[in-house]
Design goal:
Chain A is mostly helical. Chain A has helices at 2-33, 40-59, 65-90, 100-122, 131-136, 148-170, 172-182, 184-189, 194-216, 226-241, 246-266, 271-285, and strands at residues 138-141, 144-147. Classes of the chains: A mainly alpha (299), B mainly alpha (314).
């Protein structure tokens, strides 16, 4: 019984870390730009595929394993950076000012296109990049075996949360971002280059998405359709926490992570819809998510 | 009051009905599916006029389809007309229930909550082993007023049935657009608070729209289930909802006819793309969607209007 409880907690925490890493880029872009970015799924998928390629290259060299992880994530982040820049400057720029829902559909269209670009580049077969996970080894606590890679994952998620918190509260760029989030037009009127803030934010979001894909790559089978799964999960997490809120994404990820782990261990048959069930419940009580500032009504 | 649009619509209906026996099988079944899906799109247009987009319309589509499939399986009731009506009613009841909740939401939140609800259904269906889990199950062959039909004749009758349901839906929805409650859609989209100052309950109207869209979605799903002869949980998956929204954007919310034209164009593009470049059809769809949004913001339906305007100016 106690073991189950402990397993639920650790599994939930690991899953929450995964969800947070995936959701943070999405919530950042929504918070600043009010864009629900479906392409986030593509960033994730490209990150994972790039990581697989990187691991493939790296496995043939004799360099130490720890560096391989950095190389893998680094390559994915570079891919995410280029994609974010091209997408924001090339396409999204054209639809700023249109209906929020229209912009969602633009990102959905790009997502569809990129799904096939993946096939063109990497082909339809599935890839594995398990080497970093094997290299990390296991830790045993009593009867429970934990993968060190999972522990690294939790550490990364925690670090990411701390860094974004610090960057938003204590850096110049973070303060600028806060003003843009609060009121875009007033910020622009005070001389903040909102266009630049948008581009930089989108690139950061894309890099985070790709990095999430790379970090998760060793744990999953990298195959077609991984972007689709991720995007709905990340949406659920972000909607629970409140769209655009970093602390919301953290709490949302923890709630979903623990609930899913509990479902897996106690009622495996409801695993798939527990996430959306939680989301629907939270939205019934708090229509706009847990951590969201009330919006003034404009008459 | 018959208008010119009614006249053209009626003519198209007769042509489509008369053409059925001479159409090749694959085209007839393609058109049947397109026309069944057009009902779902019509529902989305009803919502979109009030500024609402549902990313979970597959919920009602799937409920309509499963209602038909389960009734035929459990009760042995196989009358096509009755099944389709019950599919619509089933989805309508669900829409009435979730609509009470959805009517409180707008914009992206409306879209997201609809998405979550449809994904819950997907999750339930995938985990229900007795309903075939991810594989779904086969729908019993329907009968028409007690007569069992097979093969080509069955396809033909389903085509006609779909056409009739579409025609009735088109007439009713266009009447709804013209009545006061329906005409309030655009004001709701522009400024909800002012509409409330008129003494009208906005959430009541939106609830009604959700139910209308739900019934249409259920009818579409029921017809699709009968004509495909198979149901599976993917009917509730978010990509299914996505393709309905896609068609709505392609068609534009300008008119009722747009739903049918858009849906036919979409099925045609999809099957051609699937045929010519099987590995790149998503890319084709994405490009079409992107180009439509960038260059035809009001959808295909606006093309006719633009031509009309241009000839009028001369």
């Amino acid at each position: 019984m106690l073991l189950t409880l402990f397993a639920i907690l650790t599994d939930g925490l690991v899953y929450a870390a995964y969800l947070f890493i995936v959701a943070i880029g999405l919530t950042l872009i929504f918070g600043v730009m009010k864009i629900l970015n479906v392409t986030h799924g593509s960033f994730y998928a490209f990150g994972a595929y790039a990581a697989a390629t990187a691991v493939g290259i790296y496995a043939n060299s004799d360099l130490p394993a720890a560096l391989g992880f950095l190389f893998m994530v680094g390559l994915a982040m570079a891919v995410g950076m280029v994609m974010g820049l091209v997408l924001e400057r090339g396409i999204l720029r054209l639809v700023y000012g249109r209906d929020e829902v229209i912009v969602v559909l633009v990102t959905y269209a790009v997502f569809l296109i990129l799904e096939d670009v993946i096939v063109l580049i990497w082909g339809p077969r599935s890839y594995a990049a398990y080497q970093p996970m094997v290299a990390a080894g296991n830790t045993e606590i009593g009867d429970l075996v934990l993968s060190n890679y999972d522990l690294i994952l939790v550490a990364i998620a925690g670090g990411l949360a701390a860094i974004t918190y610090w960057a938003l509260k204590f850096t110049r760029y973070g303060r600028l971002l806060a003003t843009v989030i609060f009121d875009r037009e007033t910020a622009a009127a005070f001389g903040i280059n909102v266009t630049l803030v948008y581009t930089v934010t989108f690139i950061i979001g894309a890099v985070l998405g790709a990095a999430a894909g790379a970090i998760m790559a060793p744990k999953i089978a990298i195959t077609l359709g991984i972007g689709v799964e991720v995007i709905v999960l990340a949406f659920a997490v972000v909607a629970i926490g409140g769209m655009g809120s970093i602390e919301g994404a953290l709490i949302g990820a923890l709630i979903v992570g623990i609930c899913r782990a509990a479902a897996v261990h106690l009622f495996p048959q409801i695993e798939l819809f527990v996430i959306y069930g939680v989301m629907a419940l939270v939205l019934i009580v708090r229509p706009y998510g847990l951590f969201v500032r009330a919006q003034p009504r404009k008459i | 009051m018959p208008t010119r649009a009614h006249l053209i619509g009626g003519l198209m209906f007769l042509v489509a009905a008369a053409a059925a026996p001479v159409l090749p099988d694959w085209i007839a079944s393609l058109v049947t599916i397109a026309l069944a899906n057009a009902l779902v799109v019509l529902g989305l247009i009803v919502l979109w006029r009030a500024g609402l987009v549902s990313f979970g319309q597959a919920l009602y589509y799937c409920i309509g389809a499963y209602t038909v499939a389960l009734l035929a399986r459990w009760t042995g009731f196989t009358d096509a007309v009755g099944l389709v009506l019950l599919g619509g009613i089933g989805a309508g009841i669900v829409a009435a229930l979730v609509g009470a909740l959805l009517a409180r939401y707008r914009e992206i939140f409306f879209a997201m909550l609809s998405l979550a609800l449809s994904m819950i259904l997907y999750g339930v269906l995938v985990k229900t082993e007795s309903l075939g889990s991810t594989d779904g199950f086969t729908v019993a062959t329907p009968t028409f007023f007690g007569y069992p039909l097979h093969g080509q004749t069955l396809g033909l009758f389903l085509y006609w049935l779909t056409l009739v349901v579409d025609a009735i839906a088109a007439v009713l929805v266009s009447a709804y657009f013209r009545c006061v409650v329906g005409a309030l859609a655009a004001p709701i989209r522009d400024n909800e608070i002012r509409v409330e100052f008129l003494g009208v309950s906005v959430s009541g109207i939106i609830h009604a729209k959700v139910v209308i869209a739900g019934v249409l979605g259920g009818l579409g799903g029921a017809l699709a289930a009968l004509s495909i002869g198979h149901v599976d949980p993917n009917m509730a998956y978010w990509t299914t909802s996505g393709s309905f929204v896609f068609v709505t954007i392609l068609a534009g919310a300008g008119s009722v006819a747009a739903a049918f034209i858009g849906s036919l164009v979409f099925e045609a593009v999809r099957s051609i793309a699937f045929d010519v470049m099987p590995s790149l059809w998503q890319m084709t769809l994405g490009s079409v969607l992107l180009l439509t949004i960038l260059f035809l913001p009001e959808g295909l339906g606006s093309l006719a209007g633009r031509l009309h305007l241009r000839s009028g100016q001369k």
